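INPUT
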Amino acid sequence: MYSLILRERSGSFTGSLWSRIFSRNMGGGPRTFPGGLNKWQWKRMHEKKAREKENKLLDQEKQLYEARIRTEIRAKMWGNPDSGEKTAKSKQSHGPMSPKEHIKTLADRFMKAGAEDLWNENDGPMKESDDGSGLSRRDNGRSGSNSIDSSSNSSIDVRKLVSGTCYSMGNSRVFDRSRRGFSSMSRGRFKRNESSCDEGDDFDAKKLDTLSPFSPKFAGTKEKVKSSKNVVGVIRNKGLFGRRKFRKNDSSTEEDSEEEGEEGKMNVWLDLRKMGSSAALGNHDIKLTKRVNRNVTDEELYPPLDINTVREDLSKRKSVDNVIEENREPHDSIYSGKRFDESSISPLTLKALSASGIVKMTRVQDATLSECLDGKDALVKAKTGTGKSMAFLLPAIETVLKAMNSGNGVHKVAPIFALILCPTRELASQIAAEGKALLKYHDGIGVQTLIGGTRFKLDQQRLESEPCQILIATPGRLLDHIENKSGLTSRLMALKLFIVDEADLLLDLGFRRDVEKIIDCLPRQRQSLLFSATIPKEVRRVSQLVLKRDHSYIDTIGLGCVETHDKVKQSCIVAPHESHFHLVPHLLKEHINNTPDYKIIVFCSTGMVTSLMYTLLREMKLSVREIHARKPQLHRTRVSDEFKESKRLILVTSDVSARGMNYPDVTLVIQVGIPSDREQYIHRLGRTGREGKGGEGLLLIAPWERYFLDELKDLPLEPIPVPDLDSRVKLQVDQSMAKIDTSIKEAAYHAWLGYYNSVRETGRDKTTLAELANRFCHSIGLEKPPALFRRTAVKMGLKGISGIPIRK
Ligand SMILES: Nc1ncnc2c1ncn2[C@@H]1O[C@H](COP(=O)(O)OP(=O)(O)OP(=O)(O)O)[C@@H](O)[C@H]1O
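OUTPUT
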């Protein structure tokens, strides 16, 4: 099912007109109203009238809708080409087939998504069965087919009756049409209100079984009728069905009433139709009574159709159904089925999209595009690797096009119309590359990046010499430019759209102050969009820093749904910290042996631990690269690009690669040690299983880090036993570790200590932390822990803690 889209509009409450009128009247206004009513009586009278009017309209809508449902059921039962017998019979006589126009008119008026909104609580509760069919199944054996029982209260969800999958109910068939956007309704509380049908307590099984006079069941045996009783029991609803009795005849069925003879079949069918309608429609059948005048001949009502025309119509409908079915995306697909050319994005962008082979929207793109193009503020949550970057780049491009065409094009300085903020340099470059690809056919529109690790002056020159209507920046470098009065501030005064990617991270304490300073330099009249795969509650609160009060919250994951991908297998190994440097190479080798085109990312807690892990794996002759913040930008960019393109490569990295990085076809993500929080776990894991593909995630933690699993308890994380270490691998690790320079190990020890000291749970008990750090120290081949600078020890609260040596 289309994933849930939750939209909230804060501050969108508007008081009723009446309350506003009366609040205005509170001090003065007339005291009496026509008819001697006081103002409250007057108000209530009008409210009641409005309610009645609304209900009347709703009833009319329902009748139309139900008529449509009836028609569908009739058409389905009549036109089932599978039933040879039916077809044969149908040749003999032209039954009351619904004309195409009738369906079409109703469809045009009422077959639209959201029709379910027309049903209110007065229509009874919506009932879901275990199997989601809306019908609870019972006693298969007895009926010989899927018998359906409504359980105790005998109510049935008519929505499900007309809804898609074909349920076998004896020989009668019930179609589930939910896939076409049909709304459904519970009829549990419907009252019968039809004058043309006899009222009664019981509904004869035969009636359901013989809904079509041409059905083989129509002249079925008693056994068949009996078997269908199970079915009928379901829809027995006191007062809903007439107590008509049917006498079976070889060729026709008769009613107990005077209707007999040649017209028997047709009349019975008409009555059955009405009865069926009654079953389906409750009090709304009043409409049917009015419409089907008994004095009017059936021929007049439903002119007989040539069976070939009917067949043709039905086959056309079927081919349309097939097209819909073919275009439908599977439940777990990241695509929505909607195409970009159905949206209002510019033809040149469409051209660029199709040049990249991109045709269909992903669900997040479908859910956000129109909202974003309408200029609304939005906070958007969607799973990792589902195309969020494109979801905000497309509106950014449209904003630029609009601004350039709007005649505000005369600016003293070259304006920047869209600013995209993201946390890391690699991510900024990646988004810029995607933006450039989308702008392939747009002349004169440029995307540029402002990221750390490059020369400030060069940035300035580039910004001045090349077009830049879309700027993608990391907060630190952008602030540098703003504070150094490089002329950027004035260019930003024309800003129309401000986007924050990985919003939860950028609005978190570490970045928030920078972001606040940046916002201060932006015009207040702008559109803002926040995107992330994780949006914790605190972030929703602080999102008001950036967004307007009436922003939309678009959550394509859905409340209570798992934030990770089903196709990504997640496991966890709990093993003593000392064994981690042995276990990682073992796990890598195992995966490499099983996955010829492997591509693995190993996340370590800090840059220096990353460096140590990388050095070890390199010593072991594995095909490995490293990226972390301590590496020069040129190296980071080169390795990042290389890893994007290649296969059979391991990337050891810190959290600089955790967010947004789109490395295609990563087969395994290993996280060594606990991540900083649940969100970071999800983002790291999200480097695999992108674009709806499969993948594997492994979390390797020490026993004392187990508490963290509580934060992941809603994720499908499976504990797996510690693997038996291959003695050869163990020896190889020991030998390789021995070769590594002590300075790398010491730096890793200090970084490790710093990281776990900053984690609230482990940083609380400094003595235990020192003990654990010492164990880590031994596991990497250091005999004793290297000393800390006094100032650092004081800062970390580790001064005077036993096991923490301080430099003299
Ligand atoms: N409609 C689409 N059709 C095909 N591929 C798409 C579509 N939209 C995006 N992609 C591709 O999907 C990949 C992942 O997209 P992207 O990096 O934007 O995901 P994301 O949701 O931002 O992930 P993260 O949460 O990790 O930042 C990219 O290679 C992108 O080009």
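end of record. Residues 741-807 form one domain.
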